[in-house]
Amino acid sequence: MRKAEFFVPSEVMAEFAQELASKNLSNSITGTTEENEVIVEIEYDRDEADEVDELEELLEKLREELEEEEDK
User: What is this structure's pTM?
Assistant: First the structure.
């Protein structure tokens, strides 16, 4: 089993969680950061690596959108 950790801003957690749930990956919330990010740990097999990559891309996109909103 491989593990990945995601630091998800609370403002986009619902959208991230929805995508995560659709992928049926084993996951757990392990805490929060001082910046109010939710720490999500995902356990996955090698054949699920592409799905984890998709989550990384989604999180990057959500972070960019969040930054754009904050800059307005």
Answer: 0.91
